[in-house]
What we know:
This protein is an alpha/beta fold. The chain has a single domain, classed as Maf protein. The chain is built from 7 helices and 7 strands, in the order E-H-E-H-H-E-E-H-E-E-H-E-H-H. Strands 1, 2, 3, 4, 5, 6 and 7 form a 7-stranded mixed β-sheet that branches.
Amino acid sequence: MMKKIVLASTSKYRREQLGTLGIPFESIKPEFDEDTVKHQIIADLKHPHKIAQKLSHAKGSSIATPETITISGDQLVALEGDILGKPVTVQKAIDQLMRMQGKTHELVTACTVFDGLKPIEILNITQITLKSLTVAQVTAYVNLDQPLDCAGSYKIEKHGIQLMESIKNDDFTAIQGLPLLSLAKVFNSLNIAIPFLDGKT
């Protein structure tokens, strides 16, 4: 009997992404205080890749059980040694994008798949260079997309793509929160059939 698949997130973006694989799953909010845990992990680890992996692991482990396949993730933006979080306000979004304009930053996407209580870690790094932009251009973009809940202050799947000079990545789906190419490979290793490819749709 196949284990129930659980997405340790209530993010509409991650739910929509995972849904494209056609596998039934349940979405559950992780059982921990993300803001407090994130602050402590950032203080302890400092390196963006390790921080994203640790946060992804913590989210999944908070609700993983021996009877489930639990998928969790975390995403952050790293620029010049600093971690840029979700801006929350319009002004902070404008400030972030102006700092990033004309520069290359890392979009770090970590994902953890718990086979029962055994974790399988996935890490994807996207190198993104923003165009040289004016305050007026950045302000117009922020007012259009309202990317206040997005790390880096952009929605690349919407109008945010117009801000980009170049994108270097081996799995473009990771940009939206879940690295689906890598995740599909993990599913295959766990004998979880993707319906379309399995010929059962």
